[in-house]
Amino acid sequence: MRAPEGLGAGGKALWRAVSETHELDPMQLVTLTEVCRAKDRLDRLDAMTRSGSDEWASLPGVVLTLDPEARVNSTADLLKQLLASLRLPDKYGRRPQRRGTPRGVYRLNSSTRNPYPRRK
Questions:
Q1: Residue 48 burial (C-beta neighbours within 10 Å; 0-12, 13-18, 19+)
Q2: Given this model, what pLDDT does residue 72 score?
Q3: Helix/strand/coil (H/E/C) assignment for every residue in 58-106
Q4: Which end of the chain is more exposed for a tag (fewer CB within 10 A), N or C?
Q5: d(Cα 45, Cα 52) in Å, to the nearest integer?
Q6: For residue 40, what pLDDT is reported?
C-alpha cells in the first residue's frame, strides 16, 4: 500500500514498516497517516533542536517561531497515544486490551432512598 502524499522520509519509513507487516482497517489507516505525520513533525523538531534554531516556517515578510523543546514533548505524547490506539498485535499475535466506552450517568432506582432530599 502506498504512503500518503506529503510524508517525509521518517513518515514513509514508518508507513512501510507498519502497513507491510499488518492488515489495517480503514480507521487504522487514518490513524497510521496521523502517526506518520507526527513522526515527520518530531523529525523536524529534532533537527531544529540540534541546530539551535527556533524558526519553524518562513514566509515573505513573516517568520514563525516556536519553542522546539516544548513542542517535542507534546508531539511525542501524541505519537505514543496514536500508536497505542492502532492496537497492533505483539509478536505473539495478541492485541492490547480495548477500553470500553464510558458507562454514562448512574441513576438511583425508585427503591433507593435519596440521601440528599430536596429542600422546599
A1: buried
A2: 82
A3: EECCEEEECCHHHHHHHHHHHHHHHHHHHCCCCCCCCCCCCCCCCCCCC
A4: C
A5: 10
A6: 94
Distance CA 44, CA 38 (A): 10
**Nearest-angstrom CA–CA distance, 74 and 90:** 26
Which triple of cell numbers denotes residue 41? 513533525
Q: How far from chain centre, in Å, is Cα 14?
A: 14
Task: Classify residue 35 as exposed, middle or buried by CB count within 10 Å of its CB (0-12, 13-18, 19+).
Answer: buried
Collapsed DSSP state (helix, strand, coil) of residue 13: helix
> In the structure grid, which three cell numbers stand for residue 45, read together?
523538531
What is the Cα–Cα distance from 15 to 33, expressed in whole angstroms? 8
pTM comes to: 0.68
pLDDT, residue 53, reads: 73
Mean pLDDT by 10 residues, the chain (120 residues): 92 95 92 95 85 68 70 88 87 72 59 66
